[in-house]
Amino acid sequence: MKQLLQRIKHWLSLLSFKTGVIVLSLCIPFYILSFAQMALPISAAAKSALWVVLFGLAKTFQYGGLTILGAEGVKRVKRFFKRKKKI
Questions:
Q1: 3-class SS at 87?
Q2: How far is C-alpha 5 from the chain's CA centre?
Q3: Which of 2, 45, 54, 72 has a CA-to-CA distance to 81 between 20 and 30 Å?
């Protein structure tokens, strides 16, 4: 199992910076959807199931994007946002 996870991590790290930013940004709509679905007129069991699925997808995109970006990519994204604040 550990070997499989290492291979997945290695494969994700081979993807481009742009792909990492796109995957990381996909977590935002899933976080919003995971909490916005609570306003739907459906049963509590359905709401719970939807929340688990949507929140799980949000976390998957978050950690997948961070794995693709790596430490240097995260620093690059932070620099981009710091530069935007100064303007």
A1: coil
A2: 18
A3: 54
